[in-house]
Amino acid sequence: MIDPVSNFEYPDAWVSRCKDSEALALVKQGLAVLTSDGAVLRRGFTTGTTAAAACQAAVRTAEGGELDGLNVRLACGIVTHVGVTARDGMASCFKYSGDYPDDVTAGIEFRARFVRFQDDVGLDVGAGIGRWDHDTPRHGKGEPAISRTAMDCIVDSIATACAAFGRKGALVHLEAVDGERIALKTLNGRIGVVGGISVLGSTGLVEPWDDDLGQDAVERARRAERAVVTTGRVGLRYARLLYPDQEVVLIGAKIKEALGSKDEGLTLFGLPALIIRYIEPNVLDGTGYRTIEELVSSDEGKEVVRGSIEKFKLVHPGHGIVIIDREGRVMGEA
Question: 73 and 197 share a domain?
Fold first, then answer.
């Protein structure tokens, strides 16, 4: 059995330990993950997926009618059913968090309103969705805090609904109910997003990161003769391209545990944020930058990456390290 989201092939022993056929069906669809003891943990939907479902439903009911659910093509390519409530061009969708108890945006409501059909797809971002209070490497000051993959999913969903009417595009108004208050529970204020939550989702699904699942990833890394351990979905994608002959393991923030599981044979691979923060927890102190992405994009960036890699090798001489940017370009390695 292969996870269609991560392409990880589950060991037969794991599959045999699960006696719940309905739960295994969710695993096959990519809507859940299987752990080593046979337990199944459900993935949730990201804010990006939730927003996309609301927007599509608003357009689909633009000329009347009601909906209680529809199919959304997620950022990872999977098409799945998402529950919504929609009537006469107004739609509401609540974020489903799956088996991730620490999801602070669980249950947040996105509301979408059809405005008009037009020649292209447009999104009018309203209350509860944050905006950047400064220029960043990927966003301009005042732009809504919607990631590229989330925006692509939203635009695709609106376009899909428009096609059903033979229309080229539509303008949709989107807001997140109580988003400004909920955002206070996130790191948005620290990174410069104000007025609401961020709309995110590199795959469209929320991983059910619990202790058992994280330990399974660490154990996979430990048992492999050589493995690439990566911190997120961007790293996962490029690691598979660059290291087709090695096992690639998504470990999230469990860098310390993975590297400590063996003395040699691992390559830490991924974007700068988690990796450099692991190596130098106080790297931003006194720099004036709010995020590591901003720091490494500055004039000092190359020196920061080089220095972090040198410190990594002093502590972990038997392991390798590769830091990449979001386009998969290598920023530094050893």
Answer: yes
Whether 88 and 127 map to the same domain: the answer is yes
Q: Tell me if 323 sits within 8 A of 333, measured CB to CB.
A: yes
Please tell me the distance from the alpha carbon of residue 228 to that of residue 268, in angstroms, as a whole number.
6
Q: Note whether 201 and 59 are same-domain residues.
A: yes
Mean pLDDT value of segment 222-234: 85
Which residues, in sequence order, are CB contacts of 96 under 8 Å at separation 6+?
Answer: 44, 45, 50, 82, 83, 106
Domain that holds residue 329: 209-333
pLDDT value of position 244 = 66
Helix axes 301-315, 272-279, angle to 10 degrees: 60
Looking at the structure, tell me whether residues 70 and 186 fall in a common domain: yes
- Tell me how far apart the alpha carbons of residues 283 and 5 are, in angstroms, rounded to a whole number: 33
H-helix or E-strand containing 206? Answer: strand 205-206
Residue 142 counted as domain residue: yes
7 found inside a domain: no
Contacts of residue 239, Cβ cutoff 8 Å, sequence gap at least 6: 228, 230, 248, 269, 270
Average pLDDT estimate for 292-320:
93
